[in-house]
Amino acid sequence: DARVTQTPRHKVTEMGQEVTMRCQPILGHNTVFWYRQTMMQGLELLAYFRNRAPLDDSGMPKDRFSAEMPDATLATLKIQPSEPRDSAVYFCASGFTGLANYGYTFGSGTRLTVV
Amino acid sequence: GEDVEQSLFLSVREGDSSVINCTYTDSSSTYLYWYKQEPGAGLQLLTYIFSNMDMKQDQRLTVLLNKKDKHLSLRIADTQTGDSAIYFCAETESGGYQKVTFGIGTKLQVIP
Prior knowledge:
Low-confidence stretches of chain B: none
Number of helices of chain A: 0
Order of helices and strands of chain B: EEEEEEEEEEE
Number of strands of chain A: 11
Order of helices and strands of chain A: EEEEEEEEEEE
Mean pLDDT of chain B: 91
Mean pLDDT of chain A: 93
Number of helices of chain B: 0
Largest sheet of chain B: 6 strands, mixed
Low-confidence stretches of chain A: none
Distance between the termini of chain B: 40 Å
Number of strands of chain B: 11
Structural class of chain A: mainly beta
Shape of chain A: globular
Oligomer: heterodimer
Radius of gyration of chain B: 14 Å
Distance between the termini of chain A: 36 Å
Largest interface: A-B, 23 and 21 residues
């Protein structure tokens, strides 16, 4: 089965450090999302790319977060500097959007703990 | 903006049917989805329904869509302990972006 691969699965870092999370979307998918999941807020959309172009990053704290797709096989989400309130599970999802939209495939997530 | 609402918790006995409900606000929603999340895992797409359909059945899963009331439900027949998970309702935003709006998730507990 095709899958979305996220690395690392777990990350513990100290406040103020840079964190980079990586995602390999499914080959052929043209849409990539980054979501953050916490108990309090549920799933929050952070960034959204189609054909590698950023379409929406309004959910992302711009001063410390950045998301990029340097090529079709890699999406990155970077936090610099990290803060304890960034502790959450970060999911990447990919899919194909066009005339139809049959849903997205999620990765297993990166569990980030900032101490 | 778009909003999707779900109840937080549902408890059922093994072998019974489970019905998870969801309401949404975007009358232009084109696709609606049910995702399942097991502990420590990502979301898994269970099924979707196109807005011109009223019902979709897939093995033990039945999705009902009431467009007039903007109500979506997921029925799981013969619920098993392996069905214990969080279930998310979601819809696509109308228009070209097609980003997905998720509900808060309903935690289904199956009692043996």
